[in-house]
Write a structure and sequence with these properties.
Layout: H1 5-8, H2 14-27, E1 33-34, H3 46-57, H4 70-84, E2 93-96, H5 99-110, E3 116-121, H6 126-133, E4 137-142, H7 153-158, E5 164-170, H8 182-195, E6 198-202, H9 223-226, E7 229-234, E8 247-250, H10 253-264, H11 272-283, H12 287-308, E9 323-324, H13 335-346, E10 348-349, E11 351-352, E12 362-365, H14 370-387
Parallel strand pairs: 1-10, 3-4, 3-5, 5-6, 6-7
Antiparallel strand pairs: 2-8, 7-8, 9-12, 11-12
Helix pairs in contact: 3-11, 4-11, 5-6, 5-10, 12-14
């Protein structure tokens, strides 16, 4: 069969490929220290699993509304009102098969051939691919450590053209862990309103913050920016529910109706009984979230100190998520070559920065146990010293 041309335009996920290779090596009995996974290593909290089990026992195993269970949509709307200052109702929310799916639905619903989407780099690797599949054009805006890997209002303004449709904002960031301050968010909001474009705010890591950093949703800053904001979020990172595949999109009703139509012809509803676990996640104690956050904070400190003690590597301190994004340029290796050699020689799995639009960096996840971090950093130090 001759495949559609769009397939050749999309790059397979490097993160998933390296994670799969590391798992295969572990399956062969090789001692691999994996810093590649973009998921918490904790089990889903017991009360969330119990709620899903109860839903199973009650027979909640049938088809449901394509846009999500009404009770979950209502719970998400309340969460967005109470925690994020967004005046959404249930009709402004669609439940999707993970946060990634919410963004994919949005691109299909909003982007037409030739539309431009502004994406700051480093970026989560799936953003440009989604834009490509929708027929749009990704306008990549490079950032670096001097600005904390964050786009400035001046950069955003200069990148605007008559074809600009959407701006993607990700804070806390994957892969850098950086968090935009409230002042920085306000400055970007002013540009979005002036340009009369839309912004999608990817907030999947909003609950994982450190050192007093605060998360401010750009849509909460007034009626004009609220009307131009679409929020993508989910339960994977904050509640360690990666395999549950429950995300959501919130925004103007016409956008949500359009994504619901698309979803009705692709996946239909998200797993029915799993959605009841998500309701429990939102409506029960948030102590489990804080316990995981505190564990991540300790791991971050240990890995960051070990990393910055390695001659030739530098890494700014992240304010959120569970990633470090060190600069490896002094090793003389580009990111893919670096990560391939690191895995083969020292059995340490990391993600090449080229996947995120930054070939002089690698991404290290500290969503793993402390023993693995210590052993893996020993191996990384040995590897870097052999190259410098």
């Amino acid at each position: 069969m001759k495949l559609a041309g769009r397939v050749s335009q999309v790059t397979p996920s490097i993160t998933l490929a390296i994670a799969a290779k590391a798992k295969a090596m572990k399956g062969e009995g090789i001692d691999v220290c994996s810093f590649s996974a973009g998921e918490p290593d904790f089990d889903t909290p017991a009360h969330i699993k119990a709620a899903a089990q109860k839903a199973l026992d009650e027979g909640k195993t049938k088809y449901g509304p394509a846009a999500g269970e009404p009770k979950l949509r209502e719970a998400i709307a309340r969460k967005l009102q109470n925690e994020n200052g967004l005046a959404y109702k249930a009709e402004n929310v669609i439940v999707t098969n993970g946060g990634k799916h919410s963004l994919f639905n949005l691109m299909l619903a909003a982007i037409e051939p030739g539309d431009e989407v502004i994406i700051p780099a480093p970026y989560w690797l799936s953003y440009p691919e989604m834009v490509t599949l929708a027929g749009g054009i990704s306008v990549i805006i490079p950032t670096d450590a001097t600005t904390g890997y964050k786009i400035t209002p001046e950069q955003l303004r200069k990148s605007l053209t008559p074809k600009t449709k959407l701006f993607i904002l990700n804070s806390p960031s994957n892969p850098t862990g950086m968090v935009y301050t409230p002042e920085e968010i306000k400055a970007l909001a002013e540009v979005v309103v002036e340009a009369d474009i839309f912004v999608v705010s990817d907030e999947i890591y909003e609950k994982i913050l450190y050192d007093g950093a605060t998360h401010l949703c750009i849509g909460s800053l007034g009626e004009e920016i609220f009307a131009r904001t679409i929020v993508s979020n989910g339960f994977a990172k904050g509640y360690s529910m990666t395999g549950w595949r429950i995300g959501y999109l919130a925004g103007p009703i016409d956008v949500i109706k359009a994504t619901s139509t698309i979803q009705s012809h692709s996946t239909s509803n998200v797993c029915t009984f799993a959605q009841y676990g998500a309701i429990a996640a939102l409506e029960s104690s948030q102590d489990c979230v804080e316990q995981m956050r505190q564990a991540f904070a300790k791991r971050r400190q240990v890995m960051l100190e070990r990393l910055n003690a390695i001659p030739g590597l530098t890494c700014p301190k992240p304010d959120g998520a569970f990633y470090l994004f060190p600069d490896i340029s002094k090793t003389g290796l580009k990111s893919l070559q670096f990560c391939d050699a690191l895995l083969e020689e020292e059995q340490v799995a990391a993600i090449p920065g080229i996947a995120f639009g930054a070939d002089d960096n690698i991404r290290l996840s500290y969503a793993t146990d402390m023993a693995t971090i210590e052993k893996g950093m020993d191996r990384l130090e040995k590897f870097v010293k052999s190259r410098i």
